[in-house]
Each structure stands twice: as structure tokens, then as C-alpha cells.
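Figure S4 source data
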Amino acid sequence: MFRFIVKRNGQKVPFDSAKIVDAIFKALQASGEGDWSKAETLGAAVIQRLEAVHGKKKELPTVEDMQDAVESTLIENGFAKVAKAYILYRQHRAEVRTEKQQVLQKNDVDDVDKQFDTNALRVLASRYLRKDDTGKIIEDPKHLFIRVALHTTLASIFYDPKVFAKNSKKKGAHAPALWDAKLAAKKLAVGQYELNEFHKEALVRMYNTFDAQEKMTVSFAEFISMMGKGAFDAYEKEVTEYYSAMTSRTFLPNTPALANFGNVFGMGSACFVLGIDDSISSIMETLSSAATIFQSGGGVGYNFSHLRPEGDFVRTTGGVASGPLSFMRLYDTMTDVIKQGGIRRGANMGILNSNHPDILKFIKVKEGNKGLHNFNISVLLTEDFWDYYKSKKPYPLINPHTGKVVDYIDPRALFDALVYQAWESAEPGVIFADRSNEFNPFYKHLGPIETTNPCGEVLLYPNESCNLGSINVWSFVKHRNGSGPVFDWDGLAQTVVMATRFLDNVTDVSKYPLPEIEKMTRYTRKIGLGVMGVGDALYEMELPYNGKAGIDFMEQLMEFVNYHSKVTSIELAKKRGSLPAYKDSFYKDGILPFAGYADKKSWHFDWKKVSDDIKKYGIRNGYTTVIAPTGSISMIAGCSSGIEPVYSLVFEKRVAVGNFYYVDPVFEARMQREGLMGDDLLKDVSRSHGSVASLSYIPPKDKKTFVTAHDIMPKDHIHALAAFQKWVDSSISKTNNFPADATVDDVKNAYLLAYELGCKDVTVYRDGSIAGQVLVSGSQDDTAKKQKTKEKEPPLVSLKDEKTKGMGVYKEASANIQDGSLDMSPTLVSSQAVIEGGVKEDDRTEDGVDFNGAVKCKLCNL
């Protein structure tokens, strides 16, 4: 057998016969003949043919030779139908290669480019790949992931025993590290990975930080000399580990890390909270700080409850206060001006406590989606609210400036007003103060948390930030030798260990926008490891999102991730030291920050040992688990967002040259195996709003598995949220979808159920409640009109990229594509445009809207 094969670019690479078998198996599946043993037999025949032809010539076969041999072998063995599927696949792969070259502005695609579907590459090209002053791309995905992986690994080097000691006590022994021309010109590398100027800047910054903490045992000159001599080359393995995780799409950090690491801004955190006190100086200082954060690509949350209400007397001026809403509008305008360094539009979370005198005005401030377009808003229900709600006693409204009760309100009327507005325009969300602080490790020392990041999943104190990353759990559903799906728990455990270390490193290597944020963030060291691809994984394993088996899997999954992240954080504490806030937390008492710890009957792991180990060794991170909306990174990974169910099985996109259908990949593969895949199916699902629930010819088992966001009852959305929340330290960003005909009482019952089940906050989205909703499930045309013209519709042609797990794409045969001028991805518009009810030309960016959900978090893209 040949040991090597020649690629299209002339590169000689190892020959892998398994790839031939896999390609044949996929062609068999596409023809309704999925038989692994048959694929193996045909694969062996292909290899014999190659050896017979090229062995005599004593030359290596090319990729084209191999594909020709597959075609001939299939035809000669009576598999003409399969050969046709393979030939079509081969043609479409050529189209995809050409399209990827155009997106990346390069003459060839490499192995990393092949790992990502075209839509993912568009996102990378639009927002992450480095560009020159003219806007030309000067970086490809491979080098993007190398610069991020290398930047993150630098933190681990500073914990190397050759230069680090947890308690060196040599304060002032070393001169500060300085950036100079000599350092800039010096060639430094970690094994094969060479540092750029921004990596070197990070070395200077981290050395000074570690030395100020009395951790460094060598001078900066000695440190650089050691690096130059290869003393840290062993960390090449860690760089490769991070790089492989990102390029294989099993784990991705949040947007700021992808955009900024190894780049000018250097900031890795996505989520920030700033405090606002009741003075003009505080308000304007916070405004300025927020602008700085936006420039680097972060989002900010604020609680405006400390500002006196509108009309309150101002002693210093003799005038009256304009109230918190007026300052929110000021912040909104500022956000419009700052474009987050060209990475993404600014994002804010505005929170007001339920006992603030302006609470009713706040609840209605986004009525009809007409204002505060750069804000998500939420009401923080105070810890005593439910006592008044249950007793029906008047609920006191308190002036924060004086601390005096100024009015009373019926608590049920207040709650009803909140619920109605959420039904009408998807906001405000609700934060439950008591649930949010029930397992807050710093409550006794720092007081209650009253603010979240813009999407509500990270509970933070003023000046805290948190860096996030998500594991694509779909990538751990394996099919071995054509067998049924198996979940790779061992592989997931290894990835959790790697990802936890990665995020802890981000806390050290990140360049913070403000010194106050750096100090507070490193004091509590919160990291946010979450998951994405849950909806796809459930499809793959034939588990209904809204069934007991699905809910049980989700809970088991999150307990697994939380457990291994905690064990890893303990191991990091042993080597690197516990978080500085450890003595000011309940960790020292062996308490853990999630509800599952109190429910011993549900344990699948020895959490008692985890608790004991934390008391003995400490823990590295104040939080380890958070679940973010993963707007952009799930598009890069080609999976469903966060813990969301798949929004629609089929999207129809209409453009001037014809119609395109985007199909969920797991659904597509299943329908091919069932022999149901075809034009009629795609169009029927599209007309049925992306669902198969009403299609009589779909097998009942498949109907039960392939439920979409709007097939799922609101209460089941909440049960899924609660299953994850039980094992999450912080909180969760999830859109709890409601059909357009949902009632106000449906929303109310969902909020009450969420509170009852221990959720920390909740957001609902009723279909159509945001004016001008851009992406909708299914077809863009009126159903009756489409049914009337069904006979005239042209057939569909597949354009899918089999290399990745991305959505299958089908076009009408009449669609004309010339010179790659047609954008083959659906129009992705910014979530801002969704809220505004229209799309401006400069909003056509890959933002918070993706194939798997109309609006994940209306402003965040992590």
C-alpha cells in the first residue's frame, strides 16, 4: 500500500485508507445503502486499483487519481447510483473549495480551512482575521488559531518551577520589565511557534504582574535569556493542544480572545460589570470606562438602582433629578458611537431593582422596541419581593438616595406589568436576587450580586470581568464503524481539563482595559466554561429535548463538565495558588456554588471529596461554569447555539437568482437513511415553519427526536434551563421560545416555574414580538401562495460541504451562480437590526443571528 499521496497543491502527505472507506460510506448513505462492511470491501478494491496502476509506474497517486479510482470501482461493481452520488459530491466539493478561496482571499485552501464550513470562514474573515490598512486579509484561520493558542500558553510558562514560586518573598528584588527595541527585534519562540510583537508585550506585562506578587525567582533579562535558549520549548505541546482544540471545533474561547490575543488590544474577557453611584462624576466615569471596554470588544452590565428617581430634589443644584432612564439613554447614545474596535457593536445590560420608584417606567422603556437599542434590560426582583407577592401586601418603593419608602405598589400588579411587557416585546428579563445569591461564594464578604453581563449569564460585582469559552458537545457524539451514536465521555473529560486551564490562563495573560478591573478580576478569578451544540447532540443521539431522557442527559452532561472543571481548578490551585479571595469565600468551609451540591441523591460523582479537597488545597477560580449564548463561536464551530434547541430544521433564503434551502445536518442525514430526503421534503418542512410535527409521512420516532424551538412547550424550555442551572456556578443565557399565539399567562407561568425550579434569571421570546424579525424558521413566502405554485418549482441541487458538520445547502436548479458572486450563506444581520426592525447596509454582518435560533442574546455574540 502507498505510504503517501500527493495533494492538489503538490504537497506529499501520509496516505490514509480510512478516508476512502469513509467517503464511500457517505456516498452509500446518500443513496440509501448505508452499509459499513460494504464500504470497507469497496475501499479495499479502490486501493488494489491504485496499486495496480501506480505501482507499475512507481509514482505516488494524487488526490484526483484516488477519486477517479473510487468512481471507476463503484461503477464496475454495480453501484452506479452510489457512483452518481459520489460524482456529485466531488463536483460540489470543488465548488466549495473555490468559494472558500474567495472568502479567504487566497489561492488554495489548507487542512485547517477544510475543517470549517464556508459560513464559518465568512465569520472569521469578517471579524477575526487580521487585515491591513486597506482591509485586505493578511491572516488565515491557521495562523489566527496559532497566535491565540500561543498567547494563552504564555501564562503557563510563568508558572514553570524554573521561574515561579508560590511564595518567593523577593519583593523589589527585580527591576521592572521594559518594552524596548532590543526585545522587539529579538527572535523568541516556544518550540516551533515564534512570538510576534504582541506576544512579547504580554511577556513584559505578565512579568511585572507576577514579580509584583513576589512570584518570580529570576530577573526579566534571565527569563528572556532562558526563552531564547529553548528552556520553555516543552510548552510547544500545550500550544498545539489549544490549537488542535480550536481547529477541530471542540472548544472555542469567546470573541475577544479570538480577536485580541496575539493582537493589538490583548484583551480576553467578554463580560464586564461597572458600578454607578448617585453622582454626576460617577455616572460620567462609568460612561468613559464603558467606552474603553467597548473599544476592546467587551460588553458591560450596570445596575442603575442607586440613582435617585426622576423628579427627586437635587440639593447641590436646587433642581430635580432626571432619573436613571435618562442616563441609560445617554449610555445608549455613547454605545452607538463606539463600534467596539470594529469587532462588534456595543452591548449593555441595564438593570433596575423592583423596589425603585421608577420601576414601572423602566419596565415600559422598550415598549414596542422603540428605544434603548443597545441595551438588554432586566428587572432584579429583590429578595423580599416574593414575601410581599405571596402575602399580597403592598410592596414598598424606596428612594435609593434617602433610603426612605416613598410609595407602595401592588406586587402582583407590578409582576403582571413586567410579564405583559416581556410578552409584548421580549423584555425586560427577570433576575431573581435570592436565587442569584443563594450559592454566591463571596456573599458574606462582598455582599449580594445585583448585576449581570449583557446577556445575563455571568453574575458579577462592579469592576469584575469574566472570560468565557464553550465546548462543542456535538463533536463528542461518535459513530464508529457505522454503528449507532456513542457519547465520548473520556474525550469530553480531557477537553474540560484543557479548557479550564486555558481559561485560567486567560485571566493572567489578558490585557485589561482598566486597573480596577484587573485587580477585581484577579481577586475572584471567575472563569466561564460552558457548552454549545447541545441541540445537535440530542438529535444525533435520538434524545428528545422535551422528554425525560433528553432532560436527564442535559443534567448529567452539566454535572460532568462542572465536576471535571472543579477538579482541574483544585489541581491548578495546588501548583499556582488558590484564588486571592479564597479566605473571603465560603470555599474555605467546603461549600460549593451550585444547587446540585445540596441534592446528594442526584450526585454521579464524589462531590464530598471535591469539597474536602478544596478545604485542603484551595481552588483556583471563583466560578468555573457559565453557559453563554455562543452567537459567533457556534457559527464558527458549525453547531447549535449554547443549550438552545435547534430553531428550525430548514431555512429558505430567497435571493434575486433563486431560492436556497439550508438544512440541519443531522436531520438531513437521518432523512437520507430513511429514504425521505428530497425536494418535496425540504419544501414541505420549509412551509411548516421548519418543523416536521405536522408532516404525516415522517416516522413518529423522528418526529419525537427532531423537535424545534417552537415545537417545545414553554414549560419544557424552563425544565431544560433548570436542569443545566442545577450544576452551573453562575447563570445561563437561554432564549425560552414561545409561539406567536402564546398568552400573557403563558409567560407568567414560565417565570413562576423558573423561580420555583431554582433558575437565577429568565428571558422569554415570543415569535414575532420583535418588530421586523429578520430570520424566521421555514419559508419566507406565504404558505398558501407556495402551495399554489408548487408544480412550477424547479428541482433542488445539493451544495453541501461534506467535510464539515455544517448545514447542508440546496439551491434551485434555475439559480445562476457566476464567478462566485452570489453569497451562498443566508443573510446574517446584526441583532441590533433585528431589534430596530430594519436592516441598514452597515448592519450586514455575522452577528447575533444564526441558523439555529432567530435571536440568541439580542446583543451578545460570544
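Figure S5 source data
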Amino acid sequence: MPFQLSLAIKYLSGRKLRALLTTLSIVIGVMVMFGMGSLLPTALDAFKKSAQSASGQIDVTVTQKTKGSFSTSVLNRVKNVEGVRAAAGSIERTMNVPANFYGRDVDVPSLMLVGVDPVAGPTVRDYHISEGRFFKAGDSDVVVITASLADTLHLKLGDTLRIPAIDGVAKLTIVGLLPGRALLGNEEVLLSLAEAQKLLDMGGLLNTIEANLATGDSTQRDAAVQRIKTELGSNYRLNALSDESQMFASISAAQSVFNMLGVLTLFMSGFIIFNTFRTIVTERRHDIGMLRALGASRGTIIGLILAEGVVQGIVGTALGLVMGYLLAYGGSNLMSQMYRSVLSIQISQPSIDPLLLAVSIALGVGVTIVAGLLPAVSASRVTPIEVLRPSASEAFQRISRAGAVVGALLIVGALGGLFSGQFALVALGGLAFLAGLVLVAPVLVKPFASAFSVLLALAFARSGTGGLAQGNITRQPSRSAITASATMIGLAIVVGAGGMMWSMNDSLLGMFQKSMGSDYLLVPPAVSIWEGDIGAGQSLTNKLRSVSGVGTVTTLRYAQSAIPTVSVKGGSGESQITVLGIDPPTYREISGMDFQKGNANEAYTALGSTERVMIMNGILAATTGTKPGDVIILSTPQGQKDYRVVAVGGDVLMAKISTVYISQVNLKADFNKSEDVFVQLNLAQGADAAAVESRLRTIVSDYPQFRFIATRQYLDEFSKQFDAVFAGVYLMLAVLSLPSLIAILNTLVIGVIERTREIGMLRAIGAARRQVWNMIVAEALLLSAIGTALGLLGGLYLSYVLVQGIGAAGIFRMEYSFPLAGVLAATAAGLIFGVLAALLPARQASRMEIIKALRYE
């Protein structure tokens, strides 16, 4: 192995640019995987530690499993458990603050509202007051806030703090200041329990119990905790922080996405390495034949080629690990500064996960070995006799024809799956279609190059280099096909995702117009993530209905719940879901759902009865396999309740969130929720819109937690938000397409090196530097045009598969829309990549010295 290794290092050092470009593709893939894989768990760990530290010296925290409210009688049951020294009930609720509520220059997106029992609270937690005083029994309209919040709002003791409340704006006098604390980023606002119950319409209710135990012995403490669990039953959760929370799940999902991004980048890197090594074998046939003549075995030749791949894999992986750690280190510093100042959370430096390190190394080095294996075996078959006759191209053509036949069969099978109408066959056909294009690409190089060269002839008519470029591309169809395939995969992903997003945009806008059919909306700060939104009581809708010219008014109310789930491995668990309460008669007049299963009239009629029934949205029905007629067990503050599914349907707001719709009557009875978090209203026929709108704005101004907006204006905002997401997806996919740029650049550089003497001959017989430059640029455009054409074909099929997949999953009804913008963007990107990739090799070729080029071996 030292012999092969020394030869590999010598060869790579003599081809620095080629080795650099090949290694760079490995660096990018490993950097993305290792860097983001190290950064996101660090952030997750910081959130966990922050949340755990928030409970201070509290031994046990009790919450309802659905995060709902419950009777104060539950507190008495906890107090009576043997081993509990002290317990206190409270109300803790995140409050989303409307933009500019405290002024344009003050950014306080949310607060943590905490209602504390003035007597029992201090017996379980030490509320350290740095200035002023704590609550007294009988206090009302007073508040204790953190010193950092006071500084942000430029307030002091005795000043008034305004906060949104269900009956308008509450004005509270500041009587005490707390030091800054790490409570998941939200500044604490403490008020008496009675005051919190009044402001949130939660009379006689709690949502959190904190308890300290009477002993420090671990065995006795575990026994006491178990007694609390037994007393309260499965409807309550102790020490509720868990990895199943939406925040932790989102971070974990992001980590999976970036890991997949790294794997796909490494996959395309394999194409680049494969192409490079095949060229190496062809270029060094004479050298390999001489080694075989001197007695080198086939194993020696395979070891020589693989050694080059291993060296590049090790170097690329090492650099990728270093750059990945620097990415994680820099990202953690940026996040730490932001989180420390905004969220009061300290993020430590990223730690190295041994498993992630091993996987990154295995993939980084493994891709080079796998990509170089076939060329290495091909090189080992070279004999001294073969070097004397030019049979390489014929062998490659035989391989290309065999691959083309297999590729054509895969494409025909994919088209058959497409017309079958069965999603499983359509999805399988998507993979077969891409694989078929890769295999058939060598056969398509010549006809594609001939077709595109007509356009090049017009562009380079004066220099006459279009024909030379076409000849250079078609001379090595296998190498050109591999390069085009790397471009094809990158652009297919862009076009496929773009087609899905384009279709989703059209479908969601259609759903919006159907489910948001009102004239005006009252929108909370965080639409579809209702947990932190402070709604309004019945007084608001009464005021709205009393305005002359107002027709139908309907509202949405919110709660959280959980339903039983069964895992693939046979285990059981629970999934958190959103519960929305609607008023069926007014809701169907002013709004509407998109129903996938069931009858709309029957569903609304059933919801209007006293029976416990629900409408389940598509994404939840798809994940649980639920259909109309099934009975689902909902966890509620009143215990487990059976609800019958009457239909599958939903609206645009909850299209991506597992949601069920029940009547507001049942929401009040089972979940203790009666505040309106979203309001829709229509004008009466013939009403003066301007006069009515002016009166409505006056009423809503007393409820700053809502934004009053015309539905048509909200639709425009919704479209702009979706366009922003659309742009973000394309930005991420652009990063994924970088290896295709490297592939074209690598092939052109190899071509320039391989044709050094040829270029020298062209210069010697009078070719100008500009003509050589144009020839290389024309080759790049041909390569990128072939890759772009194949990428568009693959991407359009892939986009159709993705759209059909969403429809087949029953998430929501989705129609395919041709992604014209995605096609144009991909075409422009492919051609621009070609020009960019040509700059360096064109410069290198045009500046060759004629004498040195003619003497090149």
C-alpha cells in the first residue's frame, strides 16, 4: 500500500487544480452535515437547560396533559399527598404582544404572564425582589416585572404597565422588580392569582401546580412523586418539559433536513469523483499499461486508483470537519449573542458527537471509495497489448449502449407508473425516471449537442468555435453525460421543489378564498399558533354585532389536546393536536372548509347537536389513518372524552397543523375555553362600507391583541409571506446545486489539461486567444444546456410526484400547476453555471504558451 499511496500523492500533487476541485465537493457535503449536526443539538441543549433552570428549587411541577386549565380542587389533592411539604397553584401563560404595542422602537414580541398566589406562592418558590415589594393579600391592579423588562420599556416603580386582556387593555401599577431570569426567552410579568384569573376569564381555575417535597432522600422523593402520579392519574403530567414539545421537535426536524442536505451534496460529489476517475483511467492508459507490463497485478492497479480516492476523501473529509466545526462555532457565537440579549439563554460552544463524527467520516471517505471503485476495476483490466490499439472508446460505447437500454426501460416503466394512477407506482417511477435519465444520458449527448450547437453557431459565428466545442463534447460522451447528470440532479431538485411549491401556492390560495370568505378579519399576533394569543370575551362580539350594517359574525376558539397513537414498533403514545371551536350556523354562513371526506351539510348539522363529534383535518387524518365514523379519544381537563369523526376537512390556517374542529359548546364544557382568538365578519347587504369600517376600527382599537384588516388585504399579505418562503426554499436549493457547478468546472479543467497539446497546435496554426476562450465557453454552455434539459425533464416529473404524494396522503386537496417560474429560473441558473464554470479553464487555456503546450506529455 505505501507504493500505491506514494504514487497517488505524486500524481495528485502534479494535478493540483483537478484534485482541489474534486476534493472541494467532498468538503461542502461534510461541512454541511457535520457543522449543522453539531450546532443544532447545542441550541437544543441550551433550551433544555434554560427551561429546567426556570423551575428554580421546585421539586415537582404539575400541568394538565393538554396544557389546559383545571379546578383548584386538584391543588388540594396534591397538598394532601404524603411527602408533599408545600404546594401552590398558579396560572402561567405565554402572551404574544402585538407589533408596536409598546412603541415602534420597542421590540417585545411576547411575555410570560404568571398569576401567583400571594400567600402560598412564596412557600414553594423564593421570589427575590430586587426593588420594591411582592404582592400582598387583597392586592389588585398591581404587577411585579423583571428589571430588564422595565429597562426595555423605560418604566420604574409606580409606573403603569399595559398588557392585552380579553376585555381590552389592562393597566397595572408596578410595585416590584425581579432580576432577569431565563424563562425560555420571555420576560416574566407577575400578578396576583386572582387578578390573572380575572384578566384571562379563568375564575376558579389553574393551569400549573408547583410543589416541594418534605425529604431529600432520593428513594422517598421518588415514592412521593409516584404517589402524586397515582393520585392525579394519566390526565396530568409531572415535570412537563420533554423532548416531545413543538420547539424541540422543530429543532430536531431542522437537524434532519440539514443532514439530508449534506447527504445529497455528497451524492452529487460522487458523480464528480466518478467522472474524474474515469478520465484519469483514460488519460493514464499508457502509464497503467506500462505498470502492467512491468509486472503490476490487477490488485496493485485497483489499489493505486483507490488510493487517490482515499487521499482525496481523507483530505476533503478532514477539511469538511474543520470547516463544519468552524461553522458550528461561529453560528453558536452569533446565536449566543442574540439569545443572551433577547432570550436570556446562554448557548455553550458546540460539542462533538462521536456518532455524528463517525457518520461524517464514513460518508466523506466512503463516497470517494464507492465512486472510484468502477473506474479502478476498469483500469485493472488494461493490458500492455491494449495500450497499442485505441479500443477504449469502443469499450465505453458498449457500456453506454447497455446502460442506455436499461435506462430506456426504466423511463418506459416510469411513464407506465405515471399513467397507472396509483401513487405507489408514480412515486417509484420518479426514482426510476431520474435513474433512467442518468443511464441514457451518454446516448443523448451527441443529438443534444448537435441541436444546441446550432444556437452556438449563431453566437460564435465569427470565431467559428461552435463546431470545435461540439466535437470536444461528443468525443467523450460518457464523461460529458456524467457531468450533465450532476447538473441534472441539482436542477431536477430545484424544479421539483419549485413545482410542488408553485402548486401548493395555487392550492392554498384557493383554500384561502374558500375558507376566508368574510369581508373583514380580526387577526391575533400569531395566526395558527394560538397558544400565546390572548383572545377576547363575549363583550367584543356583542359590540361588533350591535353596529348597524354588520351582518354575520363568527369566531374561532382554541384549546390543546392529545390523542393516542401507536408507533411502528408496536408501542403506544400520544400526539399533541390543536382543537378549534366553531359555531356551526354562523361559521358555514361566513366561511367554509375544504372537505376531503364526508358531507359538509351533515358535518355542520352534527356539530350543532349536543353530541361529541369532530371534523378532523387532512394532515391528522393521514397520519392516524382516521376516516369518518371512527371514534377518537381526546384528552381534556375533564378527562378522556370520546369524539366521533363526522368528516375530514379543514381550512387554510391549519393546513399544516394537526387539528380537529368541535363545537364551541363542547369546547367550553370539556376544555374550559370561551375566549375568541379569531373573528370573521360580513357586512349586511346594502351597508355603507366606509361608515361601518370606521365604527368597527374604533371598537377594535380597545382590543390591541387583534389587528382589524380587510380579507382581501390579508390575502395579499398571505401571498407575500408564501412568496418569501418560496424564495427561501430556492436559496437553500441553490446551495445544494453548487456541486453541479463544480462538476462542470472539473470537467472543463480536465479537458483543458487533457488537450494541452491540441490547444497548443491550434495556437500554433493561428488560433487567437479569444477563439480558444470562446471554444471553452461554448463547451461549458453545451454541457450545462444538456444538463439543464435533462434536469427540466426530471424536475417536472419529480414535481408531479410530490404533488400527487401530498394529494394521496390526504393532507389537503392539491392540483398540479405547471411551474413556469421554476423552469425559467432553472434554465437561467443552468446556463449561468456553465458560463461561471468556464471562466477559469478558459483563462487557463487561452494563456497557454505554445512551445510548452506542444512539449506537454
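Residues 61 and 210 are 5 Å apart (CA to CA). DSSP finds 28 helices and 22 strands in the chain.
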